[in-house]
Fold this protein.
Amino acid sequence: MKKVVVTGADGFIGSHLTEALLAEGCEVTALAQYNSFNNWGWLEGISHPGLRVVTGDVRDPNFCRTLVKGADTVFHLAALIAIPYSYIAPDSYVDTNVKGTLNICQAVRDNGVDRLLVTSTSEVYGTAKYVPIDEHHPKQPQSPYSASKIGADAIALSFHNAFDMNVTVVRPFNTYGPRQSARAIIPSIITQIASGKREIMVGDLTPTRDFNYVADTCRGFIEIAKTPGLAGEEINIATQREVSMETTLKTLA
């Protein structure tokens, strides 16, 4: 795992994973989605001799082949993630999440890359039928976003089954920490308290989550990448402990 590629490196988890891999001594090629402002997202301000930032788009198969050439391991995190927007623009989620994953899988196969980790989401499980949720829990596409991620996971696993490719599906649960979108429950509560609000707007307090600090999620990615014999596996990164929204609010308050 000397030379690695991280797609979606400009995002919340991707930027932290990039830093963690650099701390491991890896040479990291970090993909930030191309934009006309040449903005690297959360990679802005991260400077390291082992870091090379490139801009591009996983929707382009030719770019993907160039991106992963010479890599030992690819961490594929690039995705559209906002659930509400997926109801409005589902086609874009299929293009980025499903076809983008197909492009990365094909590029990894064409270039003979040793290891591919494809990032899933706990959203693929939908409303829990039992807890703690394990890897055998049924998949329930309850939004176009979750459907696109189920499709992306299936594409990745098909490359293992059809071509014996060393692919692992990594499924983080509710990751929190610095750089997370303010729409998420923990930063939403913190920013409201910090702004002096006496009444905190959070909606339904009964749902539960399996919260994981972002550094622990990244450690999970790295340990999975280091571990042999995981080709074709789906692996949850989770604590297997439920925390309610009410408990989360009271703890932060």
